[in-house]
Amino acid sequence: MEVITLRILLAEDEKDLNHIITQKLTSDGYSVDSCFNGQEAIEILSYTDYDVIILDIMMPKADGYAVLQALRNTGNTTPVLFLTAKDSVADRVKGLDSGANDYLVKPFSFEELTARIRVLTRTAFGKTNNILTVSDLTLDCATHIVKRGQKEIDLSAKEYALLEYLMHNQGIILSREKIEDHIWNFDYEGGTNVVDVYISYLRKKIDEGHKEKLIHTVRGRGYVLRGSSDQ
């Protein structure tokens, strides 16, 4: 099975806006890498996989169209959302016809941005709604409400991101390295056991007190989230 990622690349040359968007998406549980020009975006995309790419159209060194063309020329079909101040119908048509999946005009609300990201990831991953379910565990990608049975579970942003990643990849064994690569961004300088620590946090909140355990360790390989029907 293909592993589903939850990582975003943001290429936006307005540094203040770049910083604000990065902070917002990070607080919503996404792992975000950001850059400030198109050439840097092309280089990052040559060695890192993302599940959504957000591109400003007017950037130095290479504009958003050039970045998108370079991406699509490699056969990469990752969803791309254009951000731009150009709001004419012709500009929107050009953006979509060039291979972008969506187009958002500045200024925009962050609620709309995150809603569009959810639609892009839901479509790319073959989901029909925002609810992920494993056994009696549910996660709402829109509201970030997590429940085990009827009990709502309070998670930190990073715990939520890890659980969402595990649930998207239900039944797939994920190595520690793969989890760290997709939940923590390039700037992370934490300890080497960070994945084990957060898995421990999740187990206490998700599995403790329940007969059916959903988070499993696969010795020498990593972790997997699965219900009894996945055995």
Question: Can you characterise this structure?
Answer:
With 231 residues, the protein is an alpha/beta fold. It folds into 2 domains: 7-124, Response regulator (Rossmann fold); 131-230, Arc Repressor Mutant, subunit A (Orthogonal Bundle), CATH 1.10.10. It has 8 helices and 11 strands. It has helices at 15-27, 38-45, 64-73, 89-97, 110-124, 157-168, 176-183, 194-206, and strands at residues 7-11, 31-35, 52-56, 80-84, 102-105, 131-134, 137-140, 146-148, 151-153, 215-218, 222-225. The strands form 3 sheets. A 5-stranded parallel β-sheet has the order 2-1-3-4-5, with helices on both faces. Helix 4 (89-97) links the parallel strand 4 and strand 5 (102-105). The mean pLDDT is 88.
